[in-house]
Amino acid sequence: MAATASEAPPVPAVGARVRALRELMGLSLRDLAERSGVSAPMLSQVERGEASPTLAIASRIASGLDLTLSQLLRLDEDNHLLITRRGEGRARRRGGHAVEELSPPLPGQRAEVSLHTLEPRASTGAPDDPPIHEPGSRETLYVQSGAVVLCIDGDRHELSVGDSVTFDADLPHHLENSGRTVARLLAVVSTGLRSG
Description:
196 residues; alpha+beta; Jelly Rolls; 2 domains; six-stranded antiparallel beta sheet; three-stranded antiparallel beta sheet; 5 helices; 9 strands; 28% strand
C-alpha cells in the first residue's frame, strides 16, 4: 500500500538501540539522564517505545551515549555489514611491532580485533608501560606463527603456534619475541566484561 501525502515518514525506532547502548556502557537510566540532560522518566519512555523523542532530545541522548545524532539514528550506515580487506585495516608500527586493526571503529562497539606482527627480539612494550585498555577489559590472543612470551602481572608465559590465552587486559602486560622468526598473533580485546 502506498503512503499518502498526509502520512508522516516513519521515525526510526531508537528505543531498543538506546537501551542496548546504555546497558553496554554500564549506565543506569539515572546515569544517562545526568550525562544527557534528559529526564530518567523520559528516557524510560523512549526505551520502551512509549515516546518518540524530538530531534533535540535525541541529540542530547546521543551526546550522553558519546555518539553523534547520525550514529544514534544510524543515518551514517548504509548497511549492517562492513568488510575489511587484507591489508586495509588501520595500521601502526612501533619498532619491531606492527598492528593492523581488523575491526572498524563503530559506535557502541565493545570488542576490537587486531593482527599483530612481532619481529625477532622485539616486544609490544616495556615492562613498566601502563595498561592501555580500559578497566574490565579482557584480551584473547591466538598465536598464528612463531612463538612469544606473555609477561603479565610479574609472570612469564610461553606461547607457541596454535596456543591461545585469555587474560585481564587492564593489568600491565606485554609480549616478547625472543625467537629468530617473526611471530604473528590475532588479538581480540573486549571491554566492560568484568567489574572490579
